[in-house]
Amino acid sequence: MMGSKPIVEVRNLTYKYKGEVVALRNVSLTINEGEVTIILGPNGAGKTTLLKCILGLLEPKGTIYIDGKNVYNLKPRDRARKMAYVPQIHHSIFAYRVIDYVLMGRTPHHSLLTLPGESEYKKAYSILRELGIEELAERTIAEVSGGQLQLVLIARALVQEAEILVLDEPTAHLDIANKILVLSTVRKLVEQGKVRAVVMSLHDPQIAALYADKVILLAHGKIIAQGKPMEVLTSSNLLKAYGIKFKTITIGDQLIIVPDNTLEVKPY
């Protein structure tokens, strides 16, 4: 699917936190329609900061365009209709029912004085059914597992009817079965045209190799390489990013990445 129409364009992005700590350095990239783009890198690489800039939550130097429009010229409600965010860590002090929590995704489509109607409840139930978690609808979010909660968060994003799904480390606290469940679900959303594009951050090169159409390898706020997984996830690039050696093996069209436990250099 590489070479599809760009839906998000990031140009010469630099972001500094207070104290002049540089989190991103002159980052440029594209997110294409019909693709899963994975921003890959070690902890502290700048992945979450980059996603928050794309979402318009942080204001860096540089420009970000969505369908040719500057993201910072869009009103928050309009940005929410373009992009839906699934955060890495979720905490709620309220024991919402899953169905009610999912319907919070409709907020960009309502004023302060309106509530979801019957058709929206039907849509939310339909999305839960499509994701295979309809039986969770009447439970509270405190009663679901980590993998189930990630799917609930994705359901909330889908009911938002945004065109781009943005996920920050969606598998960070999940076991391998739930990682596969969540990421295969996300891939299907793109393949079935339920969303125009997906961009997510991950720190595991092997998972990126399995699920990405495009990989953007990031370390210390700089892009080391970007492109197809086979082109980006080389031993030399991974050494620069993670500071350890990796062995890469190709079996058919599948890339297998095995880390060496010997520390070689500091990340790039």
What is the CATH top level name?
A: Alpha Beta
The N- to C-terminal Cα distance equals 29 Å
Named at the architecture level, the CATH assignment is 3-Layer(aba) Sandwich
What is the percentage of strand-forming residues? Answer: 25-35%
For the report, how would you describe the main beta sheet? 6 strands, mixed
Give the CATH superfamily: P-loop containing nucleotide triphosphate hydrolases
Helix/strand-derived category reads alpha/beta
Give the proportion of residues in helices.
Answer: 25-40%
- The coarse silhouette is globular
Q: List unreliable stretches of 5+ residues.
A: none
The number of helical segments is: 9
Strand order of the largest sheet: 6-7-8-3-9-10
